[in-house]
Design goal:
alpha+beta; 17% helix
Length: 199
Amino acid sequence: MNIVPRDLMTEIPVSSADFRGAMRHLTGGVSVITAGRGKDVTGMTVTSVTSLSVDPPTLLVSINRDASSFPLIRRHGAFGVNILAADQLDIAERFAGKGGLKGADRFAGSQWVTAISGVPLLVGALSAVDCEVEDIIERHSHGIVIGRVRDVRNSTRNAALAYWHGQYVAIDHEEDAARLVEVSVPGPARPRQVSKLYD
């Protein structure tokens, strides 16, 4: 059952520009949502995937109801979540509509396998997750799609693709962990090399 709050304060409207500005500060992992079966497939790039529950394994994604993926997800009751690696920027841009590609044409140039549900999953993704639709909650322009996880394919790669301030950003676990050690809370004093200004 969906409960809609009734006592919302609406006296002070927030502009869409201010809201977008705030959301630009929120770093998001980049995923490609895939939907459909056979030749009737499509997909889109999103940063709105989040885990909902571990037991049972469930996640959610917010999808614009005007997106081509939305009716296929509703019709087939399944979708794929493909969490992109740092070197998969071209896939992110293709599924975001760069170059004007639509539908099955977006899948060209990458290797895909068919999940148990019938949706395409990306070979080489950090993780590829096959989901069965548990519920769709429609609010405003979007549908919150709740997916029960039916299968997970994890890779051993650890460099992820993120989106922040309107740009794609690579996050490399080992490289960035080393940088964090350099600026983290100081432990015992370590000698620093200081360059000489004068001889």
